[in-house]
Amino acid sequence: MHDRTPHSISDTERLNRLRLIRSDNVGPRTFISLLRHFGDAATALERLPDLARRGGATGAGGICSEADARAELAANANAGISLVTPDEAHYPPRLATIDDAPPLLGVRGALATLARPMIAIVGSRNASGAGLKFAGMLARDLGEAGFVVISGLARGIDGAAHRATVASGTVAVLAGGHDRIYPPEHADLLAALLEHGAGITEMPLGHTARARDFPRRNRLVSGAALGVVIVEAAHRSGSLITARMANEQGREVFAVPGSPIDPRAAGTNDLIKQGATLVTEAADIINAVQPIMERPLMLGAHEDDEPLDFATDASDRARIIDLLGPSPISLDDLIRMADVSPAVARAVLLELELAGRLERHGGGLVSLV
């Protein structure tokens, strides 16, 4: 583990990192592995075609061109958006510690807000009047206590939490690009909160949010926060996905109890049964996160810190691929059953991923596409 001291990167490295994360089949985890192994984005870009071929790619994988990356940087600058890396100031410090932190985050607004301690408030889109009122009260009290409220700009609870903290500072995490606000009726809310708060996204300009982008956004909401408060959530809701991600990221999970006969409270009441901290006022949250804030923020040991070994012999590669299938399997099981070193297994999985043949699931599970 090491301390997080922000520093800047060169314009060339920023350009190359943008090219790398915008290239086919390169997600945040793959990006981190490549950067750690090769030392810089330019070397990783050079090696991409060869690694994808080794993973079984037939055609040439699309590598983002320098011209496209320069155009994206210019468009961001024109829109007042900064693309920041996890090792720079204005990147939310807690977000930098998660395993799949976005390699580049598009940020705009009052950027100093992003360094302040954050509490996430999320919940039902079709919230009850009581739920909306309580979310607003809770958010306002947290804002007055010096916390920044972070949420997903969705209808319902998210919107109520943002509105209550426009003056004290709130962060909206977008599922699409900065120019593709969802829901569209929250464009004015986003514009209003930028004066004292910020908007952040890992998606490029022009990207319209699709269904799978919302869980991706949720990991940023929980990852940037000290803890996540679920105000109302039915049994199968996106807010419960955020709670699960918060758990995986080692964040505090708080839940507001509700009536046993209101389906909108079924998820939150379940969370309390499973050990989430029950919340009836802001003091419940503040008392729980105070000890965490007093600890120095360390960057955890990422699973991607571990080395890669691309000097794999064909029989090792074949054994690993034979063990993979459509059903997710854990990396530890794969290493044990294939009888290979972690460095070899990680390298083969990375090659498969770059070839578009591997899917990563929560909890460190992988499967073949």
What structural keywords apply?
3 domains, alpha/beta, 13% strand, globular, three-stranded antiparallel β-sheet, 369 residues, Rossmann fold, nine-stranded mixed β-sheet, Arc Repressor Mutant, subunit A
Give a quick summary of the entry.
Helices cover 42% and strands 13% of the residues. It is of the alpha/beta class and 369 residues long.
Q: How many domains is the backbone divided into?
A: 3
Rg from alpha-carbon coordinates? 21 Å
At CATH's second level, what is the architecture of the largest domain?
3-Layer(aba) Sandwich
The largest sheet, given as strand count, sense and whether it forms a barrel, is: 9 strands, mixed
What percent of residues are in strands? 5-15%
CATH class wording of the largest domain: Alpha Beta
Q: Structural class, please?
A: alpha/beta
Q: How many strand elements?
A: 14
Mean pLDDT: 93
| N/C terminus separation | 34 Å
Report low-confidence residues grouped into runs of 5 or more: none
Shape: globular
Order of helices and strands: EHHHHEEEHEHEHEHEHEHEHEHEHHEE
